[in-house]
Amino acid sequence: MPCPYTTTIGNLSRMTSVQNPVDASSAPPKSAMAKKWLVAILVLTFAFVLMPFLLWYMTTFSRPLTDAEIGSYFVDAAHPRRAQHALSQIADRIMSPNPAIRSSAKPWYPQVVKSSAQGSDELRVTAAWVMGQDNQSPEFHAALLERLADANPMVRRNAALSLVRFADSSGHAIIAGMLAPYAMAAPRPGALAVRLKPGDVINPGTLVAHVTLSGEKIEVRSDVPGTISQWLVPGGAQVQPGQPILQIDPNPEMVWESLRALYLIGQKDDAPGVDRYARGIEGMPPQIQQQAALTAKAISARAAQ
Questions:
Q1: CA nearest 86: which of 99, 100, 68?
Q2: Backbone torsion region of residue 252, taken as left when φ is above 0, otherwise alpha when ψ lies between -120 and 50, otherwise beta
Q3: Type and span of the H or E element at 267
Q4: pLDDT (tens digit, 9 = 90+) per residue, 185-239?
Q5: CA angle 22-28-31, nearest 5°?
Q6: How large is the angle between the packed helices 138-147 and 109-118, nearest 10 degrees?
Q7: 3-class SS of residue 8
Q8: CA distance 138 to 118
Q9: Quick check: 248 and 222 in contact, CB under 8 A?
Q10: d(CA 244, CA 88)
């Protein structure tokens, strides 16, 4: 198959020679024309190779950062994902088998704690996860306990899961609740206009509805990932702040993390919720049922002690 670029260029050349005849003596040498086209093709090809690389370079969290870059990324308000990139790189340093690399992460611990308390929702979620990677840090332990009361449920969940690595079960209720449907509340009063339907899969930040009051319409976005189970309020109804409006079934990732944590800190009262997954739930992958069985066995053994 001919290259689409060379085919187009060839057609343009033939059109020029027919429609705009010129004196042969004034035409540039063929070799010069060929070089111009070759340069154009090379530039175009290079652009197609370079642009995906630049996109990866600017967006991936796996690209290593220098200390100078980490510092600049934390203060780059125009590109908030860069702060997440910096946090991810600090986590990589913490988890490195090289003691020198692990030590290089410690000077950034105060910035991680600050991000967990003052950053955007996405940044606080990431910081709560990062702090769980060093379960010997007293400052991380203290900060995670504070994040159990965060306004964002995903921050609370990550904080609770990270605390398990500290052998701290303070977030037990939050972790157990991850197995149950989540009731999302209305953020303000007004008329509810639903956008999605039961069965739709959503993620944090997914636009699910609008609430309108006195002509002002605001977006209602999901707090957690999962599948819409049912609307608790019909479209067009008036809602009040804090009123439950939407029920969301947990996604497999949340169930998996909850079951793994409850394997370590689960209590007798958690058994019914765990057993439900051990019996198997339609739509959940097989490893969920297997982990639930292991978790139920661990809970039963602790209860018998």
A1: 68
A2: alpha
A3: none
A4: 999 999 999 999 999 999 999 999 999 999 899 999 999 999 999 999 999 999 9
A5: 130
A6: 10
A7: helix
A8: 19
A9: yes
A10: 34
Q: What are the angstrom distances between the C-alpha of 201 and each of 62, 127, 160, 228?
A: 27, 26, 24, 6
pLDDT of residue 73: 92
Backbone angles phi, psi at 193, to 5 degrees: -120, 105
Residues paired with 220 in a beta bridge: 209
Q: What is the pLDDT of residue 64?
A: 85
Side chain identity, residue 163 = L
Both tokens of 129, joined, read 């996860």
Of 215 and 274, more confident: 274
Of the candidates 126, 156, 128, the one whose C-alpha atom is nearest the C-alpha of residue 140 is: 128
| Partners of residue 231 on adjacent β-strands | 246
Helix segments in 119-167, DSSP class H? 121-131, 138-147, 153-164
* Integer angstrom CA distances of residue 96 from 37, 158, 200, 239: 49, 21, 39, 50
Structure tokens at 292: 């639930």
Residues in the chain: 305
Convert the pLDDT of each residue in 62-89 to its tens digit.
688 899 999 999 998 888 889 999 999 9
Give the three-state DSSP class for 116.
Answer: helix
Give the pTM.
0.79
Looking at residue 210, what is its pLDDT?
Answer: 97
Whose CA is closest to 260, among 287, 300, 225? 287
Among 15-19, 22-26, 290-294, the minimum mean pLDDT is found in 15-19
